[in-house]
Amino acid sequence: MIREIRILLVEDNPGDARLIRELLHSSAREHLIITPVTLLKDGLDHAENNECHVVLLDLSLPDSHGLDTLVRMREQSPDTAIIVLTGADDDNLGIQALQMGAQDYMPKGDLDGKLLLRAIHYAIERHRGEMALRRSEQAYRSLIDDVFDTSMVAVIILDRALRVVWCNAATEIYFGIKRDMVIGRDKRKLIDDELKCIFADPDDFAIRLFRDYDGGTFTERFECQVTAAEGRQERWLEHWSQPIRSGIYDGGRIEQYNDITGRKTLEIAERQQRDFAEAMRDIATLLTSTLDLKDVLNRILNNLGRVVLHDSALITMLEDDHIWVARRRAVRDTQEIVAERQLQTDYRHYLIKIMDTRQPVVVGNLQEDERVRETAIQANVRAYVGVPVMLQEEIIGFVNAFSEEPNTFDVHAAERLLAFAELAAIAIQNARLFERSQELAAIEVRQRLARELHDSVTQTLYTAQNMAESALRRWQKDPARAHDLMESVFQLTRTALAEMRILLLELRPAALSQVNLKTLFDQYLQPIVDRGQFELKMAIDEVPPLPPDVQIALYRITQEALNNINKHALAKQVDVTIRNHETHLELQIQDDGGGFDVAEVEATSLGLNIMRERAEEIGATLNIHSQIGTGTRITVNWQKEAT
Question: Among 186, 526, 529, 561, which residue's Cβ finds the most Cβ atoms within 10 Å?
């Protein structure tokens, strides 16, 4: 059976057309049906209405010229093979025609029947292969489209000019914008006009993408947060892109947005928990760094914002069923403050509920509660959260926070506030115990001063009084003896005055740091010597002003040492030496008394422990060297701070 080939010959030169027909008929074994036309218009009409296997196309026609002739014929007959007929020296034109979709080209000057027929056969088969490949590509594209459209990764394809040529269904879901509003648009203008405003940080999103576009980069990944609105949900996306290196979109890029909301939610929760733990650690340190109750309460309110965001807060204390406001903090106008104070009375039923349940109370909107509505409106507050401050299962107060926005607080906020209240309870209790200890210490100081006043000053003055009376009686009879008695009275009153000065100094310890170290030792250690039986020799270097706590500690250590020597050592001489070295200050107290066994006495000696504690408080070292019968040497070394 003879094969049939339908050929459309588009050639305006009658001689060339006749030559081509004769060459084909003389060489063909198949049945050839050749339809000649001289105009492109006629060729397009024939191709539209008739089946053709191949088109022999001259590019220079009366109604069309050049490669545009090929373009128009290819648009009309996409399923037909095309062989371009060119002039003898138009190889470049033929190659361009191949690049634009022609299956082959033949110079007219080289026409040969067998070569032309072979070219027709090859063109038909090549075109069939191309058509099969195209159908395969279309099927593949259809498959890819289906896969991408069901993928939960948003994909946007841009051409070289950054126009959107394709996007999938996930893009519509994530961005809340229809595909027909995206396709064909310049991505940069799309970002400025519509896309960036859907992100929590629109400027950052735009800057990152424009930087990639301008620099032609693709490797950076970054996270962006889409805000919730009608038609879209709040979610976190990770953006990344890659270049297109071949095909019709060569030079373009594929942008992808992966939904990382689940991972990001966990990260945020973990970071919030870590921040909360760090805040609680810092707050615990801060609250326990002071023992002043007023300062503790102020610090509680000042640090509450690190735990729960709020607009105003107050601490309510509970004592003997009496509820009273200990501290408040708010930035409001006078009218709102007055209303808030009234609110403190109106919302007591919430505190009673906390007392009954021992659990936090969260109110979304106080202005919806009939019992507090009017006051809450005047105070401009809505949300409320209150938690108990508990110490050993006993409620000692409440921490209360208010917000101007409704539903600000939730269960998590209440839990965080409850943990904060546990720290507050410890700090409040420590401050209370310190106040009580201060009161007890003041009582002890007064009692000790009273004893010393009785033991030293009172007895000295009593002795002086008796001597003065005796001197008056002897004044006429024995003036010399009366004079000696008055000398003794003078010495006793001077000693009593020095003792009184020390006792007064105990009431004003800050005065110890208001004079230099040498003056302090000269003036305030002498009464101890006067009471004792030893001679005191002091050698004190000139010392620049010391930190108050250091000077007071050195004085107290020396004072305690001299008192111990006076009571126990039976010394005849005591040497107090202070040497001002370049790096440290050395205090040495040495006596020639009976000495003691350091190992046996130190563990039970209150005086030695007091001296050691005072040295540790200023970062100094204290060493005690003593042996029975050889006296005692106490050495204190305080390192100067580097300047």
Answer: 561
